[in-house]
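FYI - complex with adenosine-5'-triphosphate, inputs then prediction.
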Amino acid sequence: MTRVIGIVSGKGGVGKTTVVTNLSTALATKFNKGITIMDCNVTASHLSMHFGAYLHPFTLNHVLKNEVSIEEAIFVHSTGVKIIPASLNLSDLVGIDISILGEKIKNLMGGDDFVFLDTAPGFGKEAISATIACKEVLIVTTPNIPAVTDVIRGRKVLEELGVEPLGVVLNKVTGKKFELTNREVIQLTDLPVLAKIPFDLKIQESLAAKTPIVVHDEKSPASIEFFKLASFLTGEIYEPPKLSFFEKFSRIFSKLS
Ligand SMILES: Nc1ncnc2c1ncn2[C@@H]1O[C@H](COP(=O)(O)OP(=O)(O)OP(=O)(O)O)[C@@H](O)[C@H]1O
Ligand SMILES: [Mg+2]
């Protein structure tokens, strides 16, 4: 059965699109799963940019305007991930009704193992329309008070909507003393921390290279966390790669430089 999972956050810019990009690619490339991802952040769409997929003629906007079917808006990336982009053109917002998203997604169910929805930040109409189309969500946050406070607020909204939060993905973790710890995040949110993704400039480098970091630098600590998160979702075992002495040395060196 297809699991439709929303990737949500209270605060913006915490890494939802990065998580959708890399979790989906990890599942497709390492776990051989059928994956469709959809950019439901129609007012500030970025998902297609993470894959360098700009030229597909049809988008979610066309689907929401009933101009094409949802299948026609799918772009198949070389990793095997199927992407439904949102238009990059703001004029394509005219005449769309985001609240029919759930109805449209029903047509996707069946073929895939997972459908991930990349949502708008916060809990406005755009984000809620995507969230209620899901049974489950992953909540992305950075380890600081404002972002985690938004997770606590968001939990209440999810409860009211009857959507199950699977847990928290902590992103941009530096390990500095001023950051909230895993334990504090668990205590404050009453949710498990499912992954702890380090702050890594390689993620920004991979965005510029239009290649998910799990492909761009498969053995990086951030990639390993994405593979572990994918393993959690499938229940299948993932063995992290063993690094050679040279690889360990060059990673420590690149952190220092
Ligand atoms: N672990 C990380 N280390 C370093 N940079 C990161 C990390 N995760 C994300 N980023 C960078 O942070 C920026 C915001 O990430 P992203 O677009 O994924 O956030 P978002 O939650 O989807 O934002 P929005 O709320 O606007 O949709 C991007 O430039 C991305 O490359
Ligand atoms: Mg985003």
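The mean pLDDT is 93. DSSP finds eleven helices and eight strands in the chain.
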